[in-house]
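User: I'm putting together notes for a lab meeting next week and I want to include a structural view of one of the chains we've been expressing. I don't have a solved structure, so I'd like a prediction I can at least talk through. The sequence is below, exactly as it appears in our construct file.
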Amino acid sequence: MEKRPAIVLLEAELGETLKALSECFSLSRGFDPGGDQYGHRRAREIENAVALLKASAELGSTIAKIKGEYRQNINVMHGEIWPPRRGTEPAPRTGEGSAS
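Assistant: Thanks for the context. Below is the predicted structure for the 100-residue chain, given as structure tokens.
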């Protein structure tokens, strides 16, 4: 089965994003502390890497949505959750569909 052109394009963009992400992390490790007294240059590269991580997550999510494989499960737990109390485990939920 041939991939859709949109998926091919998005996967190529994801690859480029991951290469740029790797470069940002390499740059953040390579700064001389003496030349970056307050750590601003290093911090900026880390901020760039975080932005690229967010972009790559969006690209991955978009690819999954196009392929029809998108699912988002969010578990919210309130109060003290660790260690779990004995006998208070909720019953397993069934019949949950995928969010599209």
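A couple of points you could mention at the meeting. The helical segments are 5-30, 40-67. Residues 65 and 100 are 7 Å apart (CA to CA).

User: Perfect, that's what I needed.
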